[in-house]
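From the thread on structure requests for the teaching lab: each student submitted one protein with a one-line request. Submission from student K.M.:

"Model Ktr system potassium uptake protein B from Microbacterium azadirachtae, tokens only."
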Amino acid sequence: MARTAAPRSFSEVVRRTVRLGKTLTTSSPSRFAIVVFSALILITTALLSLPIASADRTVTPLADALFTAVSTICVTGLSTVDMATHWSGFGLGVVFVGVNIGGLGVLTLASVMGLAISKRLGLRAKLIAAGDTNPMRAHGGPVNESQTVRLGEVGSLLRTVAISAFAIEAGLIVLLYPALLTAGVDPVTALWEAPFYAAMAFTNTGFTPNPGGLAPFAQNYYVLSVLMLGVFLGSLGFPVIYTLARQRWHVRRWSLHAKLTVLTTIVLFVVGAAVFLLLEFDNPKTFGSMDAGDTTFQAFFLSAMTRSGGFSVVNMGDLNGSSMLAASMLMFVGGGSASTAGGIKVTTLAVLALAVISEAKGRPSVQAFGRRIPSDVQRVALSVVAWGATTVALSTIAISQLTKFSVDEVLFDVVSAFGTVGLSTGVTERLPDSATYILAATIFMGRVGTVTLAAAVAATSRTQLYSLPVERPIVG
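Reply posted by the TA:
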């Protein structure tokens, strides 16, 4: 007669569970990032579910609290409730702290805190911190250190991150406070709204603390320009800020990543403004009632915000269908790698564009600024676009089926969620709970990164000791 195994003690089960959790979270930076992001979202959800977090002191429904928490930690800016009227001062305070944590990146923030406490970083801490500066580290195999910040420079990068984030937000506060007073905001209220707007601009979130959003400042081009400046600096990415801090105007000494990020960002900013100017100049609901100067400025502002900023002066639902499609394309690209912006990232677009140009010219390799871009970077860029497009497509189909809303409006909000932009046609506020959870998952995928998420859940990389025969399928 077979003997039955002795039941395991509760302490043994706990030890095995803890050991399994430690293995999963420490085996790679990508898995650690997902665990920490998830934990922060759960904590924020719990805080926003408290009666003290709502203005009327009632418990916020789980779907709304969870969605706001995801949008906060993932620095998105979409919301299913009116941020200015639904949440109390405590609730907005939770959002303010959450976007600053999410904007820095949880791995970077954890490493900065460790550096401040211990005054040094071990090898494991450096590897974890480096996961925020180079998604290539989410994969097994060697990493070409010349692609990004070198492992030995991680400590200097973290100091630059902490100092630059504090300095930029402080500078934005100094610029915004007098402007808010001039616009008629109460001095005491401005003491809160200036830091809130500064954080939302630098982290590319786009939440507004006052009813009506930016409507009171629609003609205040100084305030709008300061917000654009904050969005631009936040979207560059900390590795680029680190390079600029070290090399300043010595452009030839910039890394290839910094050159591609700055150049592509400027090109998209100008081209986006030109497209919106061309498509919306005669739309009476948006730019049609403005003079040439106002139309030009608002086109540049809209171009900057669709890159991940999330602030809006015009109603996105009033845009022409062609403009909504152009905005969706800009939101899908997003900002720089390892920045507070989302999307597939401008360097991904740049690498793919260079690959297309090289193929058209018959070059054997992809080149830029006197450097060759290796094939593994090109494969990751292609994977990011493919996974991102798949995520957007599946989410759009699911939400459209559940809500029966117009596909173009749903697509706009889904791309905004994936790119962690925060602009909306009004669809997000009308979603049922089931569709709200799908959109929240889309935000999480967009912020954590589809390739990073895939690497985190994939099995441990295996070394292949053989090579299969080559056969070329017909492409195109």
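TA comment: Residues 154-182 form the longest helix (29 residues). The chain has one domain: 26-138+153-453.
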